Predict the structure.
Amino acid sequence: MSLFSVLDRERTVARPGFSRWMVPPAALCVHLCIGEAYAFSVFNLPMTKLLGITKSTPDDWKLTQLGWIFSLAIVFLGVSSAVFGRWVEENGPRRSMVAAAFCWGGGFLIGALGVSIHNLWLVYLGYGVLGGCGLGIGYISPVSTLIKWFPDRPGMATGMAIMGFGGGAFIAAPLSVWLMHRFSTPTHIGVAETFVALGIIYFCFMLVGATIVRVPAPGWHPEGYIAPPPRKLVTDQNVHVYQALKTPQFWLIWWVLCLNVTAGIGVLGQASAMSQEMFPGRVGPIAAAGFVGLMSLFNMGGRFTWATISDYLGRKNTYMVFFLLGIVLYCTVPHAGRGGNVPLFVVCFLIIISMYGGSFSTLPAYLKDMFGTRYVGAIHGMMLTAWSAAGIFGPTLVNYIRQYQINHAVPKADAYNATMYLMAGLLVIGFFCNLAIKQVDKRHHMVENEADAVGVA
Amino acid sequence: MAPNSEFRHTTPLELALAWGFVGIPLTWGVIETLLNALKLFK
């Protein structure tokens, strides 16, 4: 028996009496760590002064160069979750969580080496490429396991894990600042040492999750659980990951996610500047920072709340709410700006951002409803390419439209109005994509022998 | 009999440890952020 056999899916099958409530913390061990990505910006400023210490020198890295680290990580999140999705599904959560821990922890260590010898390409390779692969594999690794443990509440279960991704930044930001403070001296900025410490801490934390995680035994179901009667948009069949790509449902949901995330991510990155420019003299940098903090909390809370609501409301209806309510809120923002109504502006964006988070966390259960549980992790991985695409569309749209407006003599306070209406327009398209989603045609379902051959659990 | 088929209940202590391991740092982070946000809006 090899040393690595302890990572096999068969070795992670839960014995009778194992509580399924041990699985969400195992998933959170991974998601809280990889959620650090949202807090990476705390390193940006210190990394522009690694040589000059007190101020940037011409040889120091520029902010524009550093921005690529996060962008690369998000691109490789999408790429790796799509490429390794099937591997994750077939090898089980423990092996994939360990692989994610090696990539994520290793990414920090290579990044630390890059910082210490001042080689930006090594940082790109470490945090961006290897760390990005850790993000992608880690993000999808517990999803299908949670859905199998919680057939009665799949939205709530995956919502808990994906909430951790939103919450990871809350831990990472103060921890990183504290570590940098500890490792810095008057002649040295302790970014490399902080990367090493974070790499080791996250690696250990993720291994704890891999140790705890279990998959249910074949045929297991919660005590007293009665499978709900078949419904139109909830299948009890399975669709193979490659077959799913041939269905219109896959691509409609891809656009549903992409459009909703494009609208959300565009304003998430610009929230601070937008609030100050729309309310000049009333919202300063300090209040804007507080607003961004609140938005992060609603982003995290929305992931759990909306996914849980979807268990009762249905996935399609939940996305309908995201789109309809989103359209109303985006159209309200310019009025709030014109009327100088700061509380209305804040409330609008807090709800919008909660739905942005909710669209991520409701997605796995939506995919499970449409394509079954067998390959839901792999299909989810493919679907995350929509996130990568939205990560490019959203900020680009907001930035370019704002600049276009300013170049055409539109006052800064009104420069975001066109963007808000455009975002509402994107949500209208998303609404119709979601409306068009019907159940998957029977010809795409896996036949019984095919399902047995790949070991349906 | 394979080891995995032996019956053993997960104890409340195991559950508390697992949830505490992730819950305590997360709660700390959320409280820190909330306090900062509220302080900044004053």
